[in-house]
Amino acid sequence: MRESLIIVSLILGQALGQAELPPRLDQYTLAKGPVVIGGVSQNASGLTYHAGRDSLFVVLDAPQRVIELGLDGSLKRKINLNKFEDTEGIVWLGENRFAVVEEAHGNIVLIELEPKDGGVSWKKAKKLKPDIKVNATNGLEGIAYDPLAKRFFVAREKRSPAVFKIIPPKPESDTPPAAILMSLAGRGLRDISGLHYDAKNERLLILSHESACVVEANKYGIETSRLLLRGGKAGLSRTIFKAEGIALDKRGTLYIVSEPNLLYVFKKAKPRPQSSGGKGSK
């Protein structure tokens, strides 16, 4: 009986040990890049991943436009953002729905990008305006979305960079969305340039181009790991300049875009094979 319990305990321990845990950011290394983004010459400012289309979407701040890309950075299509201003972040909400942030205005603009769309009208789009102090040089720079809690995360870029949870009002309400400061998230960073929320693992990825890193924070905003984007780290020969957008795909691959038009792809590093320590080894 005792032997049976030991065997069961070992099996359970192995099963728990083999449970799929998300890789820490410091386990990632560069797999590809920098890759020049197809159809973009400058101002790549935000990034999101569309799981249904297995595509990346990049928002530009001038001209105001969204670009759909293959995972290799190749161009799929361009969508004009008509009458939008200073678009700095984008996030996929599900189906064909997205949200875009306008930095200086502090707007979250809700849009739909149908597969054959050639353009989106700002006037026809619904807007959310959280009560966050912004201006032309220090506005909303990144956006992420929690599909389970149905709330957003937005980042104020610099001069007291901060992450806020944004709780939208009920559809029939005219009240502005609630903005809750996450006091611990991104603490110590010189700026915040992009966000991604991993709902499966309840973690927030916070990108900083001035600090040249990505911080992984738990749901309380406490840092749990960090990916350094400096030359000589994570397989990079040079520091990533002006990293502006970040996204994870459904395989756990990490993507970063930087101005003017570059894509970097990171994957979990493969463990190095261990040398055999037998008697005949030297």
Low-confidence stretches: 4-18
| Element string (H = helix, E = strand) | HEEEEEEEEEEEEEEEEEEEEE
* Mean pLDDT over the full residue set: 88
**Residue share in β-strands:** over 45%
Largest sheet: 5 strands, mixed
- Order of strands across the biggest sheet? 2-3-4-5-9
DSSP helical segment count: 1
Number of domains: 1
Q: What is the alpha-carbon Rg in Å?
A: 21 Å
Helix content: under 10%
Describe this structure in words.
With 282 residues, the chain is mainly beta. The chain has one domain (23-268): 6 Propeller (Neuraminidase), CATH 2.120.10.30. Helices cover 6% and strands 45% of the residues. A 5-stranded mixed sheet has the order 2-3-4-5-9, with no helix packed on it. Strand 6 (87-94) and strand 7 form a beta hairpin. The longest helix is centred in the first third of the chain and has 16 residues, at 2-17. The radius of gyration is 21 Å and the shape is globular.
